[in-house]
Structure prediction request, 615 residues.
Amino acid sequence: MCGIAGFLGTGDRGDLEAMAARLSHRGPDAEGFFIDEGRGIHLAHRRLSILDLGGGGQPMASADGRLVVVFNGEIYNHAELRAELAGKGHHFLTDHSDTEVLLHGWREWGEDLVGRLNGMWAFAIWDRDQGRLFLSRDRFGKKPLYYFQRAGTFGFSSELTSLLQHPAAPRNLSELARVKYYAHALIPAPWSAIAGIWKLPAAHNLVVEESGSACRVSRYWRYVIEPEEPTSSDGELAGELRGIVLRATRRRLMADVPLGIFLSGGIDSSFIAALAAGETGGPSLSTFTIGFTEPSFDESAPAKLMAGHLHTAHHEQVLDLDAALENLPQIFDLLDEPQGDGSLLPTWLLCRFARSKVTVALGGDGGDELFAGYDPFRALRLAGLYSRAVPRPVHEGLRMLAALLPVSHANISLDFKIKRTLRGLSHGARLWNPVWLGALEPSELSRLTDSHFDIEDIYGEAIHAWETCHNDDPVDRTLQFYTEIYLQDGILQKADRASMMNSLEVRSPFLDIEVADFARKLPHRYKLRGNSTKYLLKLAARPLLPSAIIARKKKGFGSPVGKWLRTGRIAPQPWSDLVRGKLAQHLGGRSDERLFLWCEYVWQEWQKRQTSSRA
Prediction:
């Protein structure tokens, strides 16, 4: 796990070193550079050593000097690929470096290499003979990659603030990206907060020619939901899924450094912990949990129950407002792009806590998105009936009545569910998901800027995911939205930043290509059955988990931001009528504006640091 950066075109070693220095938290163990001034190619790498500690240094060049690679991530099937390539006559210089597999794989297969990889990655390969720079990002976008092309220079980096160290990088804020941020509580790819700097989307490649011609971006894979009717019983399917997740977990246990498990006490992390404990032995496995002084957010008790069941070496830490205030400046100092997820804070603390004992941690990310684990899935059938049967005036009246419900800042409270559901149902089905999750409604977004943006401009990525789903069922369309947008640009971006700020590698067995292929071919009745979410996943996990864990209601990994905001110790500056109004409503207990206020607070803190760094 590492940080990568580089450019083709104008710039010098000092620019490259500045870009790399900004990534030091991603790779504290080593630093390396490759520079060919005559060709205008500059590559940098910061290393967090995980595999082949003595032989995996980067940038790594082929023996003949034709190829150079900088790589961030892990290739879990590298041993199989190495054996295949060796059988084709390739000679390896390292003992078991997955980075070297990329060099030989490129020479053998070219761009088809990425279709053979099972892992998480962002890498750049310079091919001297072709005069070409090739970049790629993994299927779900676990590893980040930003880029720009401007004034004859192409630049890239793992993080936005690193890229801004190059003098040719654009620096003006993107108004549309800012509106998208409040519409989704995240900035969807390919957009970034800076106009002219782009995220390479998940499952995409990018090619830049040495001549400086326009870069070519292409998709090599998509999570396409194509249900196939199974011929097996539910029990047989559950056993098959359990075996697939076991193999995915086993692949992610490879490391030459200490490894542990994030354990929340929910189905996903408990299942992964149980499978890992079966492979390593419970007492030798470290598990980590963050608790809260606010009871509705605290999951430390079920996590402790699960750890006891597996006999792991369990570690727990409690987060309160004082701890939040103490740590927030450190987070904002390294946060390269605004994120609206309030669980960034506890995720960061969990990663810092785990890093004190391990260098790699496995987590349950992806289980909810692939197997329909969120509350909105339960609402879909009623939402369809409601939208067809309830006239608009009646709906508006119901929203007015719901607004009178007492505000609760508990985790996923009943009033929160009712108000959010009715808010989404004020719009067409293709906007249900982003409006349910977003910080502002469409009608409020126009108050952010003097510029006018159409609904298709603002919600284009969400609309595309909904309308291009191969199955027109709302459950599958919602699964498409969650996997393509919420997971990739929300959950995984948060997990990457929180972990890499603490030089910790996080791995997600549920995002293994074998698991993903199984999930996308599974009819949604095996994911959402009646009112039961993650039906087959729970059935697969049941033999390994206590019944109390299986029966638990989902809490979600959040933080009591609403209550913290009401103390006034965490709050955005009321610089506009919109912010002043929302802040007054929240502080007065008249409405729950936690998501908007948190998004605004994070944006202001991020922008403050960007402004000061350019001064």
